[in-house]
Structures are given as C-alpha cells and as structure tokens.
Amino acid sequence: MQKAMKRFTLYIAAGLMGIASFTSCTKDFLDKEPISDALPNEVTAEPLLNGAYGDLYDEYYTLDFLVNGDVMADNAYAGGDNAANFSIDKYTVNASNGNVKRDWRYLFTDIKNANIVLSFVPTIQDRNLTEERRQQILGEASFLRAWHYFNAIRIWKELPIILGVPGAVTEMFPTKKPADSVYAQIIKDLEFALPKVREKSTDKTIITKGTVNALLAKAYAQKPNPDWSKVVQYCDAVTALGYDLLPNFADLYLTATINSIESIWETQYDGSVRQNWLTGMNTPFMWGDWKKFNIPSHTVVKAWEAEGDLVRKNASVTYVTPSWTDDYWPKPTPVIYKYRDADAKSHTFRIRYADILLLKAEALTELNQLDNATGAQFYINKIRKRVGLGNTPATTQAALRLAVEKERQLELAFEGHRMYDLIRTGRAVAVMNAQVDGNGNALNYNVTAEELYFPISQDEVDRNPNINK
After folding, report:
1. Looking at the predicted structure, is the pLDDT value of residue 210 above 60?
2. Domains of the chain from N-terminus onward
3. I want to staple 76 with a disulfide (CB 3.0 to 4.6 A). Which of 99, 255, 288, 294 is the partner?
C-alpha cells in the first residue's frame, strides 16, 4: 500500500481532476456542469482515494485541528502572531474569522472529495480493480467522510449533510441539520465501512477495522445523547484487534516509532511544506527564533506537576530562552515537545490506543462500573502505571469522572482532544471561566455555552441563503 508521501503526491498531480480546486461545497452545487463530465474516460479508483487521503495534510489537519482542540481549551495559549488564533483563544470569534472560514472550506472540500470516491467508484470501469479492493476503497472513503463530519460537528454544532457531488444533488442550498442527525449519518457511514476495510495493516496511515471501531466509540460518546454501552462495545472491539500501550510513553513521539502497537491511525511525514508547519509552528526545532503557536498553558503544566507526572510533562513540553516575549510566561518559556523531530518528520496521532482505554474508563464510569478489577479504575490505572504513577485515589462515580478528565488531559495534551472532552462532559464553561494566569489572576474568559462552537463562516452564509434556516 502506498505511503502518505505517495498519496499526497498523487493528490497534487492528479488534482482530483480539478475537483479539489473548488472553494466551497455549496458553491460547487451551483456549477451547471455535472462533475462526471470532468472525469477522464480512463479514470481509475486509486488516485481518487489517494486524493481523499491527501486531505489529511491540509491546513485544517496540520494546524487548526490542534488550535481548536487545545487553544480553545485550557491546554494552550494562542502564541504566534495570528489575530484569528488570538480571537479563538479569547473567545471573541465571529463569522469573519479567518480560521473559521478556512476550516469550513477545508472540511467541506474534504467531505466532497470523499463523496466523489463514494459516487464514482461503485461503477467505475478499471481493469486493475478487483471487487475486494473496490469494497475496501468504498469503506475507507466512507470512514473519511465520517471522520471529517465528526470533526466538523464538534466545531459547529449544526451542519448541512451533503452526501452527493455537483450535478448529482437535489438540494442546491442545503439547510443545516442538528447534531443528532449529523451523528446518525456519521454512525451510518462507519457501519458501512466496518465490514469493508481490512482488519489490520502495518502501515498505520491506512484505515482498518481498528480505526473504524475507534471512531464508532468516539462518536457514540460525543453525540448529544451518548450510548455508553456502545462505547464499551466498540472500545472492546479495538482491544480485540491486538493494540497495546508502548512501554515507554516518550517513545511514542520518536520518528523511529511510527506504526507502533499503540497507534490506531496516524499521519506521517510526507515531504510537504504543510507538514513542516506542524513542527515549525509548535516546537523549538525549526524556523529559528520565530515565536511558536500553541504555547503550553500554566494550567496543564501545573496539572502534571501536581500529579508528580514528570514522565508525561517532560515528553510533552520543553523550555527555551527565546528573543521573543510571551504574554503568559517569563523566560525560559515552555513550548510543545511532542512534535520534536528537527527535520519536521514527526508523525501525528489521529487516534491512539490510550485514548480508547480512557474513553472506555469514561463509559464504565457513566455505567457505574467502577472497580479496580474490570471497571473504570482498572483502565485509568493501566494508563497511570505506564508513567510510574500509583493507582487513582478516586473510587466514587463523581470522583472518577474528574479522574478520567484529568488523565485525558495529562495523557493526550497537544493532540487536539481537550476542548471536545470538556464539551462532552458538560464542564467546558466552568473550566474555562475558572482559568487563571501564572500569578493566580483570573483570565476572565466569561465563556457562554454558545461560544464553545464556531459561527458558520460569513462566506457560506452569503453563498447559501438557507444555511441558517
């Protein structure tokens, strides 16, 4: 199977036959010519799928995925010099924010590219395409559509559900749908994908049954009315496929450990400039003394220190003495250390096994299965023991809810999860409004529940008169 570099190269070379150059999914619907007219007679299936995989290297997935998950939460400050990021950090986002515009554009282009695969591969005439491979391609594309929608609905709360391609749709100006409808479509896409994708792969950039089961668990947990029994079911299905924790936490982030036993799904170095951004904008090793984005917060650093968790702290942050000054830290200043390769060849975890173990602990807590033998405590302690910590002192359901929340923060910091964890547990407003700086002064975010989600891009509102109906 081709690696990420080849996928992205094909994406650029083929350009999805000009499809991916469109700026908006809704704008595409206004084009009069069917998209099938743009496809050459001898089109083959693999470049279409490679193009869809290549979307995982766009600006949303290499930059904003982490900003939205950590800067909006209590894990990081915006840093850098980007006004759009500052407004996300300060909860002053409006519909004209540049990140809001580009995230909508990228994610709905990504959805469209998955739709292209799902629309044309079922009947494509390709002499080199076996029926088994055709079904795998459809499964992988269906997962990708679910993945993009999963990320989008966590950002916007309500979205249009678009399953077709230009020239093959009935709704020119789609209306937005509530979150429960979007999650129902996500789950439907994942259930379609599950029997079709391969069981395992040594290449963890490829979508497999582990990937699909993991996202099913996450979707059932994140939807407005979680189904915790389903979360346990799909977490167990992941475990049954042979995933495990790496013995040494810090080894997760070495370039030598791509495709590890803990990795369920990851993106890897592909040689592109955008992959360099991930390292250059967040870590001390590239672009000289340029001020970094996503500066670790006092909150997350104090959380590691209060727990005596030097293993995860030292693997997650390092300190530099830069020429620039930071609004929140004196010098030396902490910067992210998880994406640490000096040549920008770090891989990025999209889903790893520790996430699934802690998600199962959360589900078991909600199901009131708490004990240290097979319940929530067991899975929390499994994660803690890897980094040399003792068993959690939490034993009650209320205490274990907070223990899972804390453990996810310490374990998964700077991997794009924290904001959505807080939203899922209903704790985001309280946590963010309690934030203080290094001297204990209130940061006064004054967050409301509505401000936890982005407004729909003004560009999209202008294009689609039905979007806010």
Report:
1. yes
2. 4-455 (1.25.40.390)
3. 294
